[in-house]
Amino acid sequence: MSDNENGRDEAVDKELEGVPEELLSDDEDAEDEGQDFETELAQLREDLEASKQETLYAKAEAQNQRRRLEKEVQDARAYAATGFARDILSVADNLARAIDAIPEDLREDSKFKGLVTGIQATQRELDKVFTQNGITRIAAMGLPLDPNQHQAMMEVPTDDAEPGTIVQEMQAGYMIKDRLLRASMVGVAKKPE
After folding, report:
1. Mean pLDDT by 10 residues, the chain (193 residues)
2. How far apart are CA 190 and CA 1, in angstroms?
3. CATH code of the domain containing 156
4. Residue 143, helix vs strand vs coil
5. For residue 150, what are the β-bridge partners?
6. Quick check: is 13 in a domain?
7. Tally of domains within the chain
8. Are 160 and 181 members of one domain?
């Protein structure tokens, strides 16, 4: 087997007959092309990895956005009646005042018994509707002042309760589910001077 001027043997030359010369490059060209190929392959791999990361970030962002929207929809459903509930609280206050204003002796009087019973039934129905809509009254009397639920309107000097304890409720407070609808207006005990 003899080598020709390109450093190839005759069998190889015979196999390569008809192949254009530009495709038959010498070893230096092949080596340069191999390096170019490796560089391009490395670049493509980097680009692929970067695209994978961007895709993961985009999926995570889309999922977070979906969760935020779901929470907003849930909150909108749960607290949609907040404005109406605040407005109707004054009706509940007036019903309670009406019942409290009726003296005990008139409550049993046959002339007023139907009126008192009607007002009490209306108050019970309103309380039932509040409960169905997640509106609950805030406990106050005898509890320590909680600034998240109670608004101290005055201090009451007394030895009967610890300072900071609620001893008077001037206006009932309400929650709608886990949010404050209206704070209780209260009087808080303090040590007498």
Report:
1. 56 78 61 76 92 95 95 84 86 89 84 87 92 90 91 88 89 90 92 82
2. 116
3. 2.30.22.10
4. coil
5. 184
6. no
7. 3
8. yes
